[in-house]
Design a protein that fits this description.
The protein is mostly helical. The chain has one domain (3-36, 54-143). The protein has helices at residues 3-7, 9-39, 53-87, 92-102, 108-114, 119-135, 138-143.
Length: 148
Amino acid sequence: MTAKEYLQQAFTIRRLIKAKESRIQELRDMTERVGQSLSGDGVRVQTSPRRDPMGDLIATLVDLERECLDDYARLLALQSEIENAINSVERHEYRLVLYERYINLKRWDDIAEDNNYGYRHVYRLHDEALAVIENGNALTTVNTPKGA
């Protein structure tokens, strides 16, 4: 795994969390609609026993919320590792660009604008910083498999 691939993992986890949060909101909306339809008009008709649709929705919602919390914990741990890798880079400008991109998850144009850099300069600093991480000891500590 390259330094860039490693550092981009936070983006991927963040996108996954956003997708799950969207699904959670969708399920919450569904539980409201199902709850309203179950309250109905009070007329009850005897039917054969069925599964509990509200219970199924709530169980799915709770499971997804738990997964989301696990993903947040994973994201925080990964961001801590990424920060350690970034902090191992000596040059201040490299650390700044890497931190803004991979910890603050800023877009390239925002990084350039916030730091009064040209876009090309940001890309050059980024490429040079990745080379430092890959050639230095930062990547060896970051890429070491757990338990090794």
